Amino acid sequence: MLVGEALLGLAKLVCDLGPTRLGVCEAASCDHVFVDTSPNSSRRYCSERCSSRANVAAYRARRKAQAEALALWACGGAVSYPGPRFKHTPPLRNFMREAGVSPGTR
Ligand SMILES: [Zn+2]
Fold first, then answer.
1. Of 35, 99, 102, 104, which is the most buried if we count CB atoms within 10 A?
2. What is the pLDDT of residue 47?
């Protein structure tokens, strides 16, 4: 009967907070459902673990995009550079912006 009681408690919590407070974890490999008890309904992950894992994944994806843009830039990106004509290779920062990659911080 413990499960029933837990479900009842959850149902009551959801009713008290409103249906918009129910969320599904945004982490790629997680489908946990959570009740958002944050003051401004900004919760995106079921746990700290998912949150930090997703942040690390996003960071890696950003770094990967940066590395790819850097490789493109270094390997003659200036030839097919779609922006204004540069006499020389455009500044990497500009190139990354054109390529839709945030130069970000290292
Ligand atoms: Zn999760």
1. 99
2. 94
